[in-house]
Specification:
Blueprint (H helix, E strand, L loop, with lengths): L1 E2 L6 H14 L10 E2 L9 H9 L2 H16 L4 E7 L2 H10 L19 H4 L3 E8 L5 H5 L4 H6 L5 E4 L7 H4 L13
Parallel strand pairs: 1-2, 1-3, 3-4, 4-5
Helix pairs in contact: 3-4
Length: 181
């Protein structure tokens, strides 16, 4: 699943994700989905952030979209969040809405167990130049710790040339929980 970033109409998000899948030579069993949200335009960063990526409506829509995948029979989900798309994921996480969709990372999905039958596993979370505060991500019980409840494989790609809040705050791998490969 791809969460596109700021100033990215749906057709651009679909194109970017399709390019990634084609160039990455992903296997046919991967089913691509894009969650689109009101991203704003060039001069609308603040409204896109507050009304789009951080709103309760967008968070519940994202949760409902994930729940529809689970209802359709998907048991595993991989999320790639680019730029401001990461804010949607973390907004949903902070509100506790992902507890309704994902089981803990160590859960065993048993079709006879009602608690895990209606939930999926978050296999991987990839953050690409996330527009999210580094301090909120690495602090104790912050975004990283909360995400680890659901997922063991969390990857962050940050580029100092891209002007997101994450990279402007000097993201580095100095936190012992974050180690480079």
């Amino acid at each position: 699943m791809f969460l596109h970033g700021y100033n990215c109409p749906l057709n651009n998000g679909l194109t970017r994700f399709a390019q990634l899948l084609a160039l990455g030579n992903f296997p046919n069993h991967i089913h691509p989905f894009v969650f689109s949200w009101p991203t704003g335009g060039i001069l609308a960063y603040y409204p896109a952030k507050t009304v789009g990526s951080e709103s309760e409506r967008t968070a519940t829509d994202f949760r409902d979209f994930l729940a529809s995948l689970v209802d359709a029979g998907y048991t595993s989900v991989n999320i790639i969040a680019h730029s401001m798309g990461a804010r949607i994921y973390f907004n949903c996480l902070r509100r506790g809405l992902l507890d309704q969709v994902f089981c803990d990372h160590d859960c065993k999905q048993d079709p006879t167990d009602l608690a895990t039958r209606r939930k999926a596993r978050l296999v991987s979370l990839t953050l690409s130049n996330p527009d999210y505060q580094r301090e909120d991500f690495v602090r104790r019980n912050g975004g990283f710790d909360m995400s680890r409840k659901f997922c063991n494989l969390i990857t962050v790609y940050a580029d100092s040339l891209v002007r997101t809040l994450f990279s402007r705050t000097g993201f580095s791998f100095c936190d012992p929980r974050l180690t480079p490969f």
